[in-house]
Write a structure and sequence with these properties.
The complex is a heterodimer of chains A (309) and B (282). Chain A is an alpha/beta fold. Chain A has 9 helices and 16 strands. The model of chain A has no long low-confidence stretch (mean pLDDT 93). Chain B contains 4 helices and 16 strands. Classes of the chains: A alpha/beta (309), B alpha/beta (282). At the A-B interface, helix 8 of A face strand 1 of B. The complex binds flavin-adenine dinucleotide (FAD), flavin mononucleotide and FE2/S2 (inorganic) cluster (FES).
Chain lengths: 309, 282
């Protein structure tokens, strides 16, 4: 943690800010897939923290799909010295259960939520969003939607889906039409030559911000067998190793597309988060580090606030 | 499901105290916490290094014992993380997230049935913790090792039955059955008295399968503590799933080993699907 904040940093990370016409409680969020549905930390304690949610602006919930998914075969995780490769395969409870059970519970517990959605056809983002609007339109703590256009672990949709600016625009437009008054974010894949083109397409189609990045395609080999460690061969690389990649992708977007950016990738400390803010991000998400420590995002928020005073 | 009430987890700093070699393969790690950590036998903690280059993911280890603010684990060096634990110097910082997961049932939850505890190799800690806390007359405990040098003799008093795959290096004043530990259990006449017992087991998958079969053959209940690769240890990543039986159309679903387990009823596990790659259904 930096002992005191650099003079250029003039945001209050734990104060509400406006995005897509709505007040979001703070700028330090947890990333999709790394804190489940935001319901697992309520009993947890750590010295100096009221809860893992202290200071967190939003929990981006695990991506849900129209039907439940049981995910990929085990093992689903491989670790390098500086990163993690995951092949979870979007295991999730499905949209019905998410709307009927998960969201109301999050609302009751007062957890600030950005709901992450994935689908295989652009129009499905419209129907899913409309249903969310129906179920949770008057919820105080459901703040918006992040559409996941970039998960590399699923065959249909998934990666290829999100690498085409035209498809990105269609998905964003479908969701936008059904989502008045709440921020719509498009989460982009880094596994393309020109991420700024995707960001422009998303922004032009009505996204209030883009989240960058999702995981980088990666593979590890088990030397004992000579085969890839993960049964699906490839997985999504994340953690400290991807921080410079994420910063580079974010910078390309900031320089070449006029759309606000939510920074994600390798953030494990207040100093890491500051680098994204330095490039112009409006908020940041903590993924892999949140898996290691349920208080990771809360620590980052606290450290930034402490450094400010 | 056994043991649904268990202490909540705390994320806390710890200081490494010592590594003590208990056998040729097993090391006991003691660390000092900021405050005592109440746990139930069968629960585990995620350990990591606090400084230097922490592991991207913390590593799960069953809690062996908690004595005041000292917390103890028993581990075997198998890779990068456990090698890092073996190199720790007194005073070095650790992070501990725990206690996590569902524990073994208590004697009350076993409704008076005597326990048959089975620990294979590095599966000893949760079983040892249970026996130390709850063990009474009528409960029996067994440890299975590779050979005499593998057995942490000083941790196993005369109440423990010991088996070894190879009967070498067994101390002159101790006894060890030559064979696998479930054969030792099956050979024990005092357990064939017709009483209904409950098996609590932790160890390699073949041992757990054998324990489950033995229990089923005798009409005993059986709980097993499973191990999976873990990313988070507290239920948020879905990196650690095991197939459990359900009434649904597929007949099974994924359960997270870290927070629906690691202790499961053996008859809940779809052993036919466990440990073999299961292709996605959707
Ligand atoms: C609930 C639970 C309790 C555990 N309790 C103990 C304990 O008390 N003592 C102990 O020594 N170990 C225990 N383990 C296993 C321990 O977590 C692993 O040995 C450790 O994570 C290995 O880390 P590493 O970095 O040294 O090895 P890595 O380099 O990560 O892996 C080395 C080898 O071990 C395999 N491996 C790694 N993690 C696991 C795992 N979780 N399950 C199966 N294979 C694995 C890898 O595939 C590889 O072959 C427990 C695991 C779980 C899930
Ligand atoms: C285990 C795991 C599961 C993930 N699941 C999702 C997901 O469901 N949806 C999504 O948009 N991103 C998912 N991600 C990607 C993260 O949200 C994040 O974009 C990426 O990991 C980079 O950030 P990090 O380095 O902080 O983890 C997942 C990442 C991990 C490690
Ligand atoms: S290890 Fe993350 S869900 Fe079990």
């Amino acid at each position: 943690m930096p002992p005191s904040l650099p003079t250029w940093f003039d945001l209050d990370p734990v104060a509400p800010f406006t995005l897509g016409g709505r007040e979001i409680p703070g700028r330090i969020w947890t990333a999709s897939g790394c804190f489940a549905y935001g319901l697992s930390g309520h009993d947890m304690a750590a010295p100096g923290f009221a809860s893992p949610y202290a200071g967190i602006g939003a929990v981006v919930t695990k991506t849900v799909t129209p039907a439940p998914r049981s995910g990929n075969p085990m093992p689903r995780l491989a670790e390098t010295e500086v990163g993690a490769i995951n092949s979870i395969g979007l295991e999730n409870v499905g949209y019905d259960v998410f709307c009927r059970e998960t969201l109301p519970e999050l609302e009751a517990r007062g957890v600030p939520v950005i709901a992450s959605l994935a689908a295989t056809r652009p129009e499905e983002f419209g129907t899913m969003t409309a249903r969310l609007q129906e179920v949770a339109g008057d919820f105080a703590h459901w703040h918006g939607i992040e559409i996941n256009l970039s998960c590399p672990n699923v065959a249909e949709g998934g990666h290829d889906f999100g690498s085409d600016p035209g498809t990105v625009a269609e998905c964003v437009a479908a969701a936008r039409e059904a989502l008045p008054g709440r921020p719509l974010l498009a989460k982009l894949t880094p596994n393309v030559a020109d991420i700024a083109a995707l960001a422009r397409a998303a922004g032009d189609a009505g996204a209030d911000a883009v989240s960058a990045i999702n995981t980088v395609i990666g593979l590890d080999v088990d030397l004992a067998t000579g085969r890839p460690v993960l049964p699906r061969r490839f997985g999504g690389y994340s953690g400290p190793a991807v921080l410079p990649i994420a910063l580079a992708k974010v910078d390309q977007i900031v320089q070449q597309a006029r759309v606000p950016v939510v920074g994600v990738g390798g953030i494990a400390s207040a100093a890491d988060a500051l680098k994204f803010f330095a490039l112009g991000c409006v908020s940041v998400q903590v993924g892999t580090a949140q898996m290691r420590d349920p208080f990771a995002a809360a620590r980052i928020a606290r450290d930034l606030v402490r450094a400010q005073s | 499901m056994a043991g649904t009430t268990a202490p909540a987890a705390r994320s806390c700093p710890a200081r490494f105290i010592t590594n003590v070699e208990m056998s040729s393969g097993l090391i006991r790690l003691d660390c000092e916490l900021d405050a005592p950590l109440p746990f139930r036998p069968g629960q585990f903690a995620m350990l990591n290094l606090a400084d230097g280059l922490p592991l991207v993911f913390s590593r799960p280890f069953s809690i062996l014992a908690g004595d005041g603010t000292t917390l103890s684990f028993l581990y075997r060096v198998v890779g990068r993380g456990t090698a890092a634990l073996a190199r720790l110097k007194p005073g070095q910082g650790l992070t501990v997230l725990g206690p996590l997961g569902r524990p073994f049932p208590t004697p009350d939850e076993l409704e008076g049935r005597p326990a048959v505890l089975i620990g294979g190799g590095v599966g000893l800690p949760p079983v040892h913790a249970w026996f130390a806390r709850h063990g009474r007359d009528g409960d029996t405990a067994f440890f299975g090792g590779r050979d005499g040098a593998d057995v942490p003799w000083s941790m196993l008093d005369a109440r423990w039955g010991v088996s070894v795959d190879r009967a070498v290096d067994v101390p002159a004043d101790r006894e060890a059955f030559a064979g696998v530990v479930t054969e030792l259990v099956a050979s024990r006449g005092d357990l064939a008295d017709g009483r209904t017992r409950a098996v609590l087991a932790c160890g390699p998958i073949p041992l757990l399968r054998a324990a489950a079969r033995l229990a089923a053959a005798r009409g005993w209940d059986c709980w097993v503590s499973l191990e999976e690769h873990m990313g988070c240890g507290y239920g948020v990543c879905k990196g650690c799933v095991v197939p459990v039986a359900t009434a649904g159309p597929d007949g099974w679903r994924n359960a997270t080993c870290c927070d629906e387990g690691p202790v499961f009823r053996a008859d809940q596990i779809r052993w036919d699907r466990y440990g073999v790659p299961v292709l996605p259904t959707t």
